[in-house]
Amino acid sequence: MSGQWGEGPARGDDAPGALTADGAHTGAVPPPRPGGRAEARRAAQGRPPAAPPGGRAAARAAARKPKWGAKKIVAWSAAGVLVLLAGTGGLIYYKLNGNIKAFDQDAVAKDRPPEAQADAAGNKPVNVLLIGSDSRGKSNSDLGGGEEGGARSDTTILLHVYADHKHAVGISLPRNAMVAIPPCKLPNGTWTKGEKSQRFNAAFATGGSEEGNPACTQNTVEKLTGIRVDHTMVVDFSGFSAMTKAVDGVDVCLPQDIHEGDVNPNLGKKGAVVLKQGLQKVEGQQALDYVRLRHGIGDGSDIGRMKRQQAFISSLAAKIKSQGLNPANLLPLADAATKSLTVDPGLDSADKLMSFGLSLRNIDLHDLKFVTLPWRFRKVDKELDVVQPDADRLFETLKADRTIDGQNATGEQPPEAAPPAAPTAPDTGAATAAASAASPLATGTAHKDVKVSVYSGTTATGMATKATEQLKAAKFTATAVGPASNLKYTTTMVQYGSGQKANAEKVAELFPGAVVEPGTAAGVTVIVGKDFAAANGATAPGAAASAAASPSAPSAPAVPTPLPTSVTEDARSADDNICDRTTYGSGG
Predict the structure, then answer these.
(1) Helix (H) or strand (E) holding 129
(2) What local confidence, expressed as pLDDT, does residue 91 receive?
(3) b/e per residue, 391-428, with b = 16+ CB within 10 A?
């Protein structure tokens, strides 16, 4: 891996003072390396570089010397990392810290959504805004940045890491979706007035600087979603290219050959194949071509490009996870990324970045999902509109820390309020026992594989908890979630996801008179109504309302409306086949 710490342009395994594969020094003091400050001064003065030490003979000898093999480089890198971690780890972190650039905290809006609340175990979800910048500064133009100045957000994903840190979902935000952009701070310290409707990626371009305006994008995302962004990370072309090389390439797949003219429509000809059809491994420029590709595949829109970006990030995550989330593997990746990384002040050190990276180690690839913000093509132009109320449902789902299929990712929601201390109703414990005994499911038959989420669709307190106990007594795996979005259900509903109808009918046997119907969430969902409350003696909803108003009576957060199938069915898991859904529309 080029760019490893301590690696110089004239280093070899027998160079004086070099690290051997076992991390030992050869003992001699190395001569001064060519380059450095002296060469920098020569270049600044317009003078030719100094001749390499040793003259032509030494240069010819160096040219004849065989280069390191890939295995030896890997061995040196691993040994070097271990030595540095053991003895001079501070130098590594100093180097990484020097790479990292943080944007101005004062540019973040003061009027922000509230912070996420911790679950019963004290864990909090984390929302991370990931931005891929097309900045034309530095060496980015050579990698496809183009000739225009400034910077735009080529890729933007809002990653929600659930409180259990075992699930995560990334929402791709279309760059040409028309959204409201709030007031943003400019490089000169003044603030804009904001715009009611503008392309989303205009937020990052606000101010026209080569570094872009990540704070403005963060402000825009918070205004759009109502979700507080905990961290923001921006990677430009150079950083992305270096990251793909640091992991030795990423596997991708395409349904057809991609030519030079597809990557650069201004070329004026088809040109040679730059990305071939089918499975392949890409890094550097080819990786950039893959994630930025729009033309020559599908309908040429950003929708297909976002699908390929989701597939690429899934493949990259699988590659990193297969190599192991440990410092020896993360440090080279961090070194590559941080050279072109801009972050919020909360991630402005190597320690913070490494800690955050390691906190994601327990997310299974299947539990890392990607969806696209609900959208539709506009009739008046080629831009996109955000579809409501579907988008707000998606945001509410994340704010409630629920997975996109409506499940509780943590199982640690606050309990519902207990029934009043002096109920006028008959003994509900006996009623529950009688109901369980009367049920054909109370015979010890195990139904642990049937997962049931229970919601209260009535104002009577404790009903979801009571129904959950009844299900558990019948050997189902049940979770009391909390109140439904509608508390006026007259009849108990049992809803089922794909392939769960038979299980739903078994569950309904525990709730006489319940209606069985298809739902949008996976598994089986029970929404208990007034009929269940009445059967269990809870006939005083006024008491429930007063209990909910009491500060001492905790209540579960409102459960969001299930997401439409247009969102859930289009979701990608990080372990999905990378050849699936890499384009959109006709033509590819």
Answers:
(1) strand 126-133
(2) 57
(3) bbbbbbbbbbbbbbbbbbbbebbeebbebbeeeebeeb
DSSP code per residue over 487-553 = ---SS-EEEE-TT-HHHHHHHHTTSTTPEEEE-SSSSEEEEE-HHHHHHTT---HHHHHHHHHSTTS
Question: How do strand 375-377 and strand 384-386 relate by DSSP bridges?
Answer: antiparallel
Amino acid at 66: P
Looking at mean pLDDT, say which of 269-273, 358-362, 407-411, 565-569 comes out highest.
269-273
CA–CA distance, 499 with 328 (Å, rounded to integer): 44
Which residue, 421, 460, 457, is CA-closest to 545? 460
pLDDT at 32 over 50: no
Q: Which residue type does 396 have?
A: E
Radius of gyration of the chain (CA): 29
Question: DSSP string spanning 190-245?
Answer: -B---EEEEETTHHHHTT--TT--HHHHHHHHHHHH-----EEEEE-HHHHHHHHH
CA separation for the pair 69, 387 (Å, rounded): 54
Nearest to 265 by CA among 225, 241, 238, 296: 296
Angle at alpha carbon of residue 269, lines to 267 and 273, rounded to 5°? 95
DSSP H helices, 100-201, are none
pLDDT at 216: 95
Q: Is the CB of residue 234 less than 8 Å from the CB of residue 343?
A: yes
Question: Facing residues of 156 across strands?
Answer: 131
Give residues with Cβ within 8 angstroms of 494, minimum separation 6.
504, 505, 507, 508, 511, 514, 515, 516, 517, 524, 525, 526
Q: Nearest Cα to 476, choosing from 490, 460, 494, 488?
A: 494
For 451-461, the pLDDT digits (tens) are 898 988 888 88
Return all residues near 101 (Cβ < 8 A) that are at least 6 apart.
211, 341, 342, 343
What is the helix (H) or strand (E) element at residue 285, kind and residue range?
helix 285-292
| C-beta separation of 184 from 219 below 8 A | yes
Taking the C-alpha atoms of 301, 306, 309 and 313 in order, what is their torsion angle to the nearest 10 degrees?
A: -170
Return the biggest CA–CA distance within the chain. Answer: 103
CA dihedral 155, 156, 161, 166 (to 10 degrees): -20
CB environment 461-474: b (16+ within 10 A), e (fewer): bbbbbbbbbbbbbb
User: What is the reported pTM?
Assistant: 0.62
